[in-house]
Q: What sequence folds into this?
């Protein structure tokens, strides 16, 4: 009897299931994270090659947003606000 390619694949899969079953979820999770990182790096490399990306690489877009309750109002304990009290000098 000759072992063919699919016989070897079945033997390897059975050995993995029998001996490495507890480690399989962690291995699959790390493989998925590695694939996501690889895809994002490839996307960044493609984006770096475009002239638009080179022109906009120095510009940073953003705006300052003030919380409406933080301007001049003091928070009392128990109000449930997520803004810290203003600093007093």
A:
């Amino acid at each position: 009897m000759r072992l063919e390619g699919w016989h070897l694949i079945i033997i390897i899969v059975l050995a993995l299931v029998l001996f490495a079953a507890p480690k399989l979820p962690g291995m699959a999770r790390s493989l998925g994270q590695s694939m996501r990182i690889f895809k994002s790096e490839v996307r960044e490399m493609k984006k770096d090659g475009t002239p638009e990306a080179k022109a906009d690489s120095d510009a940073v877009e953003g705006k300052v947003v003030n919380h409406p309750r933080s301007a001049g109002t003091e928070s009392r304990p128990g109000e449930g606000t997520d803004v810290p009290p203003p600093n007093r000098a």
Observations:
- The helical segments are 5-19, 24-48, 51-56.
- The radius of gyration is 28 Å.
